Amino acid sequence: MAIRSGFPGYHVAMLQANEFDGRPGVTDTLGRALRDLRISVTDRCNFRCTYCMPREIFGRDYEFLPRDQVLSFEEIARLARAFVGLGVEKLRITGGEPLVRRDLPDLISMLAGLRSAGGTALDLTLTTNGSALRALARPIADAGLRRVTVSLDSLDDAVFGAMNGIDFPVAKVLDGIAAAQDAGLAPVKVNMVVRRGINETSVLPMAAWARDAGVILRFIEYMDVGHSNGWRLDEVVPARELVEMLSSAWPIEPADPLYRGEVADRWRYADGGGEFGVIASVTQPFCRDCTRARVSADGKVYTCLFAVDGHDARAILRSGATDAELATFVEEIWARRGDRYSELRSAATSRLPKVEMFAMGG
Ligand code: SAM
Ligand code: SF4
Ligand code: SF4
């Protein structure tokens, strides 16, 4: 099947169904399709999570990107359209903390109008620390956002405060999650990064709460992103151990992935209490199915969370290039991609130069 891409007149517009998942789109050197794009709309954040932007290193007044270096909404939407024309079906808005970017609903309405290469609506979502959801859940839902993922690492204020670095209260995040549910941004997913010796004791209370609250909890293995968090392997709680913990409290059974390239391994509570997921990027890497690209707030395209450097799309966007030239730029980046950092991870790779996650877009 041949399908025309998002750009009229784009010379490589006839996308073939690929062998990865049988749908139209470009593939990389390992045969992986380009299906997901994570767009960072800011490198700023009001939290200082110890695993991401620790206060001791970045302080309260860290020097963020000057405004003129950050992509405008028009530039983001144009770049997103190029990605969508090459096969992207899912857009995730992230950061930094995306809800601190002014007028974000305007960007959401621009992105919500895009259609995938197959003609279907995009899966448009956002990851947030939840601190501004009470105020913004309704405007972002009205603008066309479909659902949200909220990060929350504990229900205990002391533990959560130690993780978020600014003593932000749990109750405000829970209230933000309720606001998201009321606004129809469902199902709400909740990401919990588990760090040995810091919030392991929060795992079962968080699971019990998520079952009652009707949210899908996903446990994330602590990753060696960036350098500032001083990551150590012995602080990773392996997904296998998390699943054992859960199975000691409730009967659980594995659930099938919903699509190829899904990041979380899904588990179902056998008593009908919903589902949870584990994201085992350290102990069970899933690079062979990784279909994700990232764009940082200053317009660099990254083909791996652990990439050393990005490709400067902002320069192309601001050079007067045509849509077709922009699409070719993205297509060539993906065609050359061979990243599989997590499959090659070792003590030596964790010391390689890397970009901080809040700068690249989580
Ligand atoms: N500020 C938003 C938030 O926290 O949800 C979006 C950006 S944040 C970088 C995206 C996700 O990355 C969050 O769920 C966060 O918990 C996760 N994350 C950050 N650093 C991590 C690390 N070292 N290991 C695993 N997950 C991490
Ligand atoms: Fe901010 Fe999210 Fe990083 Fe925490 S994980 S410091 S909330 S960007
Ligand atoms: Fe994808 Fe890179 Fe993570 Fe592997 S390490 S799953 S290639 S982002």
Describe the protein.
It is a single chain. The chain is α/β, with parallel strands linked by helices and 362 residues long. It has one domain: TIM Barrel, CATH 3.20.20. Helix content is 30%, strand content 17%. The strands form 2 sheets. The chain has a 12-stranded mixed sheet with strand order 9-10-11-8-7-6-5-4-3-12-13-14. The chain is globular. It starts with a strand and ends with a helix. It binds S-adenosylmethionine and iron/sulfur cluster (2 copies). S-adenosylmethionine is lined by residues 45, 51-52, 94-95, 97, 127-129, 151, 191, 193, 220, 222-223, 225, 229, 357-358, 362.
Topology (elements, then pairings):
Elements: E1 2-4, E2 14-16, E3 36-40, H1 55-58, H2 73-85, E4 90-94, H3 104-112, E5 123-128, H4 133-143, E6 147-151, H5 157-164, H6 170-182, E7 189-194, H7 203-213, E8 216-221, H8 239-249, E9 252-254, E10 265-269, E11 275-279, E12 292-295, E13 300-302, E14 311-312, H9 313-317, H10 323-336, H11 341-344, H12 357-360
Parallel strand pairs: 3-4, 3-12, 4-5, 5-6, 6-7, 7-8, 8-11
Antiparallel strand pairs: 1-2, 9-10, 10-11, 12-13, 13-14
